[in-house]
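User: Fold this; tokens only.

Assistant: Input:
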Amino acid sequence: MTDVIEILNENSSSMKKAILHFETELTKIRAGKANPTMLDGIMVDYYGNPTPLNQAANVSVLDARTITIQPWEKSMLQPIEKGIMAANIGITPQNDGNTIRLFLPPLTEERRKELVKKCNAEGENAKVSIRNIRRDSIEKIKKLQKDGLSEDESKDAETEAQQTTDEFISLVEKHLVAKEKEIMSV
């Protein structure tokens, strides 16, 4: 019985990780407002080593549509600019010799719909991850049943795994609805 509890705890823990990953992916999708987390994951060439942008410069929000990047070394302006262009985030950096500014254009209706589609794709990825975790858990439970776990305990554990899956998938849906509302509001 403790093996079943372990499997179900592992199931829940893995699904929480999938949700956290999904949430971080959603924060990278801009909703018209400037946010320093949009630049998370952008790597710059720091003396030959790929380094996260936020470890090579100070990233801050100047106003609702402007992000400023203040490199710690002036020589890093060009590599940061190249890193932003390579990341293809849809924003062209403006370099004034000291800082880099990113001006976020206002979102058009078409662009908003594209962003919603991107959010839905991330949501679908999260759901697939959660379902895969459930599948793996159920396979482990069935293996335990072959090794002597009673059929009732096995069915109960599978039902619990399914309920946990349903909870996490509804959480993904809630996040998607909230993000879509945020993107579509003008």
